[in-house]
Specification:
single chain; 223 residues; alpha/beta; Rossmann fold; 2 domains; 5-stranded parallel beta sheet; two-stranded antiparallel sheet; 14% strand; disordered C terminus
Length: 223
């Protein structure tokens, strides 16, 4: 554990104590950030901090499933890894990571990513940018299944409370799914600040069809 006076809380999970100490040193230079939890295993308490920096390889195991579970519970997760293959980066983002930071990208990129993630804003690191540019589907964001489901039901003129009940999650988690989808669209240069914009993007990408949307006109006009 590590205390601090910043208003933005961060948790760190890495199986190398020296890496944890290095991240804490980097973050300590930013007064808005406090590290409130550190750990060396994948057993990370959900919601322990505003943002979780998670090593993708813990004790020899790639923990994509942990990223997915934490993201599904509404935790903002930044994947921090030495593995930067396209498949690894895309899969991390697909299952719900806010962003992917390579371990060789340094303090500035990690701090900027933490600040952006906490504010549900996009920040694309050089590694993620290179992967997205190289991906043939780079103009389409990598939405998780939870994000797609939340958007579809939200577009069907449902309140976020109704979506939450249907998905069996909290309204806060539904908000997280929708905000995360907005960030992902912004990351590929297709901002969607309103509900109408999100619906237009989803139709453009074939995620939904106009006929799938109950009350399509009212949903599009809802903003």
């Amino acid at each position: 554990m590590s205390g601090g006076t910043g208003s933005l809380t961060v948790a760190i999970t890495d199986d190398h104590p020296v890496v944890i100490e290095g991240i804490q040193t980097w973050l300590s230079e930013e007064p808005r950030i406090s590290v409130v939890y550190t750990g060396e295993t994948a057993d990370v308490p959900s919601g322990v901090a505003d943002v979780l920096i998670l090593d993708l390889n813990l004790h020899g195991r790639i923990v994509i499933d942990t990223v997915a579970a934490l993201a599904a519970a509404g935790q903002r997760v930044i994947v921090f890894s030495q593995f930067t293959e396209q498949r690894v980066v895309l899969e991390s983002l697909e299952v719900g990571a806010c962003e992917f930071v390579a371990k060789n990208e340094g303090r500035v990129h990690l701090v900027n990513t933490v600040l952006a993630a906490a504010g549900d804003r996009p920040y694309v690191t050089p590694t993620a940018a290179g992967v997205l540019v190289g991906d043939r589907g780079a103009n389409r964001p990598q939405l998780s299944s939870q994000e797609r489901t939340a958007l579809l039901w939200w577009f069907q003129s449902m309140s976020k409370a109704s979506v939450a009940r249907r998905m069996g999650v909290s309204v806060h988690t539904v908000d997280v799914y929708i905000r995360r989808a907005r960030v992902k669209y912004a990351q590929v240069g297709r901002e969607a600040p309103t509900k109408a914009d999100m619906l237009a993007r989803a139709i453009e990408d074939g995620l939904v069809k106009p006929d799938d949307i109950t009350g399509y006109e009212s949903a599009a006009a809802g903003g």
